[in-house]
């Protein structure tokens, strides 16, 4: 996979964002298509980003009191069918195992599209008294939803995710948990991904199949479309009733438990690409980059090569000691230009070039993958100072990516009064990403907006995202009962 | 799940090892049965052990140059069928998806029983030249083999594992890789699990379906049966030929690549239980224990409780700072005895009890889960000394578990000349676990031994496990061509 064929540039984002995305993902070797319909292969660079996401999220889950566990991949068909809304939501996308161990099965199993049913059936077995609550578990797993149109990372038949499943004694506690995890997701997306989401509640028509209330993180991609990047659900007692998840309360009464579930998936990797990528390729925020700094020694003769390799090893050692994830690219059959091209496309935050003249001067050349306006892309720095300053340089880059994404989101958000569906459509066509408006709460208005503009209600925004002046009129006419945010979404 | 019902003792190992195992696993809350045939639920305590195993192994894989990636769960039926021995080995155990997204599939998919076929089909796409080799990837995943008789952790329809898959330019390099990973497994089992395995090659009849050579780690359980705990395979060019995995060599020739695959699974958790457990319950080696020290404050009045809780918090803080995984059990509705019982059953290595009189003396009581002969189980220690000495105490316990397991393995190994199949059977009936003997290499002898004694060749032992004097006679009569180790196995 080396050589000139790979040096072809990407389709520019402005020309065809969707083509750019597919090329960027594949050429950065984040993922590849597989021979299995709708399933992808996550390659080491993409999986490395996912591993870093997992580690950060897992630490946050544990810090909020959760433990990991693992439940079966297969779910009896009868379990999925028990919660009425749940089965309606998921049935069209199920993959079904009808045959196993050389025999037809008496009852078919489905490959989990999500695990509420199997998990709450186990909780029902484990919980007797209020003292056994809350149960705060999370599972890292693969799930399967047979989608018709798939896109690498964004929508695949199989994907990797985590699903948190909790059980509580009261509704208030469950709602608090659902909101807490929404907050964890938001912090993660901001602090680690540099992808600041809008958060809030879903409308009735957009909520999870089987939930009482759904909350979501919605991020704005560079093409102005929203990406649902994480969801957290207060499931009420819906599943508890179907699976007999009861407990004896402190007062000695038999009561149904209250559940929540919440999840994020490998879709986040796609969100990261569409948030930070440029026409050169992917840009990975330093905190998630499997390799934060790539060191490229440059020398022709064997003598030069020995000198620059030695310097490169010293820099790698120094950066490693400083806690930086660093690698040296010592392949001799590739030109420096080919290496630069490859690592820029992959989105490594910083490159350090070391040539014979740099060695003679005790310097290295530090090259940033992304620059702020007016900032130099390349700079010659004394070797020691380059090493010592690297953690701060990486943190600064992390902050800059978040700022830029936040500025893009603000620039793409329309907050004034929107008086009609036509105006909403015109705003979206004119480049607005998130459009705030008033809404009566009538699902028919949602439906009309969707037909006319392809936009849906992404969230009923949380307090911190509401407009200073609450909108007074519903976008569909009449009085508004609440503020909502519309967008065309992935 | 609290209260007197849980205080029932386990069936003693000497009475019924198999019953003891099932009870120990469930009552320690390592795992539970699920409503899905042959699939289990891994509960937080069991999953926490698996997470620690994963982390240690993953670090070792990365230190030997491997990266992680992820390949599809589903494999087209035609892929599985391509390698003749492979499909013969796995076909009877396949779970088959025939229906998805509301339609019957044109070609059924199988849920991966192992991923050679799908992975090497991708390598074929990625590899052009010798410069693209070696490929050194690992995948953490779930797999499915529809087993008739299942046992928690030891044999389940679905299990979690890692599967390494590599591609090399030469046979020598592939064989070196297969042996390197066998060594990684052996080190992991010794250093982390305290479960010293015997290593060596499998006989033809016992090797992996599709491999040229299989290597294995075989550990001796307390009941004298062997557990195959990890395997590493040199696959030759078998899969490369079926999937067109070729490369242009340095000399410009088109050649097939050489593959290896290697894996360990959640079965290791079962091996850990059967290596260290006692009649009280599970014993978890400190390096793998999710909680290494449980602190139990003991006080009746609120005043006493405040004092012991304060001391407990101090100890937890101190131990946490020292890098010890520690937790305080502050449940007030449970008696100290009930707590001791629960944590001993789970196998937490060390308990620290703090009562009012201890607080007055500035002491705590340190209680070991396992003691060496002549060692006190409980000892009063100054609080500061207890905290400062804990890492060393845990390491000593880790070492002691390995020593004990090694001594048991040696005591259970018979190395003298074995002159007949009858003698081999008598040795096994008399309590021998591993029996070394000579073997002619004739599969008919293997078959006869199996029928007469239920033992199989576990390995053709590696150099370090061979007897000082090579056996001269085959156990089935005639001249020996090699030394082998027999055992009854899980």
Descriptive report:
2 copies of one chain form a homodimer. Chain A has 490 residues and is of the alpha+beta class. Chain A has 3 domains: 273 residues, BirA Bifunctional Protein, domain 2 (2-Layer Sandwich); 101 residues, Anticodon-binding domain (Rossmann fold); 75 residues, Translation Initiation Factor IF3 (2-Layer Sandwich), CATH 3.30.110. Chain A contains 15 helices and 23 strands. In chain A, the strands form 5 sheets. In chain A, strands 3-7-8-14-11-10-9-22-23-21-20 form an 11-stranded mixed sheet, with helices on both faces. The first copy, chain A, has a 5-stranded mixed sheet with strand order 16-15-17-18-19, with helices on both faces. The first copy, chain A, has a 3-stranded antiparallel sheet with strand order 4-6-5. In chain A, helix 14 links the parallel strand 20 and strand 21. In chain A, helix 2 crosses helix 6 and helix 14 crosses helix 15. The longest helix of chain A has 22 residues. The radius of gyration of chain A is 25 Å and the shape is globular. The two termini of chain A are 31 Å apart. In chain A, 51% of the residues are buried. The N terminus of chain A is likely disordered. The interface between A and B is large, with 63 and 63 residues. Strand 5 of chain A pairs antiparallel with strand 5 of chain B.
